[in-house]
Design goal:
Number of domains: 2
Strand content: under 5%
Strand order of the largest sheet: 1-4-5
Structural class: mainly alpha
Radius of gyration: 25 Å
Mean pLDDT: 90
Oligomer: single chain
Order of helices and strands: HHHHEHEEHHEEHHHHH
Length: 226
Amino acid sequence: MKWFRNKYVITTAILVVVLIAAWPFRYSIAEWVRNQLGITLPEDPRPPGLTDLEWCEANYKEEMRELSQKYDVPYAYLMALTVLECSGNKPAGHRFEKHIYKRLEKIKNGKSIRFEGVKHHDLVDLDEEGLKNLATSWGPFQLMGYKAIQLEANVHELRHEDFAAETGVQWIKAEYGHFLTKKKFKDAFHYHNTGDRFPLSGKPKTHDPYYVSNGLKFMKYFESRP
């Protein structure tokens, strides 16, 4: 036992000495290890010089044209919304909203009655991960996961790149398609971002004060494209 203890002390001492000696060279060592393991910096797939509008066309043009025709929703609106919400990136990425999670958690725990049509029975069987999925925005239109409940769909259909765009268009059509039919695009953009039509005051309540005006500008761009 004494021999084992002495061996442990010696080994520990050697490791400490090695670590102290290597510390000034830690960045060089880390770089060497990364190279050996093939770990490289992530690269932006967007070609140099491409704008968000052009990048959106490269990634979503054909898909959005098909969905526009299938659901009778303006192509230029869908493309402009995609630029606003995910900069035309594909995959679109996602964003967890902690404040939404807290609201849904209260409903699940019976401390609140409902939130945008979501009720206790919709959440009672969900674990923490499932609740987080509902409190995260997904897809090219960055729809919150809980929107799937309204469509009687699975949140997977908002998360998966193969279904996210179509599920999003279905929600847009059902939720505020009447604005699009009447060409009230200012109301449509504002509703998508806030849940309310454009204020009578003329002052938008969007997270970005230029959200609506940029959306209208982007629409003109896509309307002019072949």
